[in-house]
Design a protein that fits this description.
Length: 316
């Protein structure tokens, strides 16, 4: 029988943890589950907010020295009493049916790890909704984070990830990597013959970064970390990881061609952005979100592309 332990690392985000805990009180799941909040050396701690939910949830709270999200997740799993761990980032809101969907999916087709998609909540800002579109759309990432049809062997992401106690004990959980630690864990799960799956209906509302600058820094870090993972696991390297960098180079080349009055390449980009605009508009029903999606997509490609180049050719 599955017993879920939800692990939430938090760092200087008491307001986020309050919203996340509130969403967990609305679960329609009839079985018991525990929630473990790991305060990762925060200066602004969340204990008072967590205590406010002690009569509504089976809660455990731990304050530890700062060591990063990965090791904080491991710490939480070591303290858990369940046999299946579910990990959320503190900037997530959990739909009421989430645990029911996970329990049903694992009962039908058990796997020792899973991941789910992320969506944009109605309360999110225009930028947050646009970022969600850029991170999940088939037109930007191939839809690998938001569609079962787009995934083959799924790589769970740490904002919405489940792992069995057995798999955690064998792999020892997350490494000390600051970026890409969830992908690194997936590769080690596969090396130890543990299966992963994508549970399409186990989605969360993921706020992500709330400014363009923060989003660029995040995508830059993702890109910078990918070459390291390619070197550590050479069999997993794919040509598609170069696509954002090639996009950036092509974008600059199209501008250079414009200077000599060759418009074809620039028109191709205009056509692509028009398709993005219409697709985002159809999904969001909001013209501001649709227009902003073009900006966030450019930020995503430029951030990841430049980060990837730095990770490939520079040590720091």
């Amino acid at each position: 029988m599955l017993k879920f332990s939800i692990i939430i690392p938090v760092y200087n985000r008491p307001q986020e943890i309050e919203e996340l805990l509130f969403s967990l009180t609305k679960q329609t799941y009839s079985k018991t589950f525990e929630v473990i909040v790991v305060e990762d050396g925060s200066e602004t701690i969340s204990k008072e907010i967590v205590d406010n939910y002690s009569d509504k949830l089976d809660l455990k709270y731990f304050l530890k020295q700062n060591s990063g999200a990965g090791t904080s997740r491991n710490f939480g799993m070591q303290k858990a009493s369940g046999n299946y761990f579910i990990i959320f980032d503190s900037d997530c809101l959990i739909p009421p049916q989430y645990l029911v969907e996970v329990d049903n999916a694992l009962t039908r087709n058990y796997s020792d790890a899973y991941g789910g998609a992320d969506a944009a909540h109605d309360s999110f800002t225009v930028i947050q909704k646009a970022i969600n579109y850029s991170m999940t759309s088939f037109l930007t990432t191939g839809g690998i984070r938001g569609s079962k049809k787009a995934v083959d062997k799924f790589q769970p992401r740490s904002f919405n990830l489940g792992i069995s106690k057995k798999a955690f004990e064998v792999t020892q959980g997350f490494s000390k990597m600051k970026i890409g630690e969830d992908i690194d864990l997936t590769y080690r799960l596969w090396e130890n013959n543990f299966e992963t799956q994508f549970i399409e209906n186990a989605f969360v509302y993921h706020k992500r970064r709330s400014t363009f600058k923060q989003f660029f820094k995040q995508t830059f870090a993702f890109g910078k970390g990918r070459p390291f993972l390619n070197k550590k696991y050479p069999d997993t390297a794919k040509i598609t990881y170069w696509f954002p960098t090639l996009f950036v180079l092509s974008f600059f080349i199209s501008i250079l061609f414009l200077l000599i009055d060759v418009k074809l390449f620039a028109l191709l980009f205009v056509f692509y952005f028009l398709i993005l605009l219409l697709d985002s508009l159809q999904k969001s029903k909001n013209i501001l979100v649709a227009i902003t999606s073009i900006v966030t997509t450019l930020i995503q490609f430029f951030g990841y592309g430049f980060g990837f180049l730095k990770g490939m050719f520079l040590k720091n």
